[in-house]
Amino acid sequence: MVIKSTVLFCIFVAGTKREQLRNSGLSFVKTFANSRFKKSLIRLAGCFVMILLFSGCSTVPKSHEHSELEKKMSTFFAIYDARENFEQLLSYYASDAVLIDVVYGHCAKGKQAIREFLRWGDPLLKLNEGNSLSIQKQLLNGDTGVTIGTFEPITYGGQSYSYWKFVIIQTFDENGLIQKQVDWINYLPREDFPGGADINLLDPFGEQQDCNMSSS
After folding, report:
1. What CATH number corresponds to the domain at position 142?
2. Which residue segment(s) compose the domain that 34 sits in?
3. Which is it for strands 159-161 and 133-141: parallel, antiparallel or unpaired?
4. For residue 126, how many C-alpha atoms fall within 13 Å in the half-sphere facing its CB?
5. Is the domain of 122 the same as that of 143?
């Protein structure tokens, strides 16, 4: 609507000046030298600049909820990267949240089970200096976010482990808390991670909100 009104105004200005030029009977050269005509050109140029500015601002803004979830995703992984405040990280999960590690073969339901699985305070775990992880891309569609990145090298029980690529899928509830998280982490070397439960018996991408294993 704003763009349409601006265009009509420009046409009106241009039309008015053209009518004045016809009535004056002056030649094109003399008219061009006239300061009023120059001013009309400036007005027209200004109109088109306004049109471009309004066109650039006419995109549909993101919803407040969408923006808030994007911030939560970004902050969650910033906390994960720093690995300094485990309680703050756990506060992003709903009380009955489910975390499924597909490759490792583990399902944890509830904050306490997630705490025990992540084991930030494990004395055998030694982090290298610098970042714990790096993010390559984050996507959000509705209440589901996808984060793609890489875990930095660590040492566990004296054994050094190199970079692990990961894809983490998180589904948020109506309060903006993580209700379900599905981890795909490329653990290496393979022989150190033989796998646990058969996650194929779960429905990690469906409506299942527990860790009950049942074959189809």
Report:
1. 3.10.450.50
2. 2-56
3. unpaired
4. 9
5. yes
Q: Quick check: is 140 in a domain?
A: yes
- The first and second tokens of residue 42, run together, are 């400036």
- CA 145/CA 172 separation, integer angstroms: 8
Are 37 and 20 in contact, with CB atoms under 8 Å apart? no
| Total count of domains within the chain | 2
Note the pLDDT tens digit of each residue in 83-138: 999 999 999 999 999 999 999 999 999 999 999 999 898 889 888 888 899 999 99
Nearest alpha carbon to residue 90 among 119, 122, 51: 119
The reply to whether 108 and 166 lie within a common domain is: yes
Question: pLDDT tens, 56-78?
Answer: 444 445 677 888 999 999 999 99
For the record, the structure tokens of 106 come out as: 């583990």
Distance CA 96, CA 210 (A): 9
For residue 90, what are the contacts with CB-CB under 8 A and spacing of at least 6? 111, 114, 115
43 and 26 in a common domain: yes
Q: Is 69 exposed, middle or buried (0-12, 13-18, 19+ CB in 10 A)?
A: buried
| Domain match, 102 and 189 both | yes
Give me the half-sphere count of Cα atoms (radius 13 Å) on the Cβ side of residue 30.
6
Whole-number Cα distances in Å, 94 to 99, 105, 112? 11, 22, 11
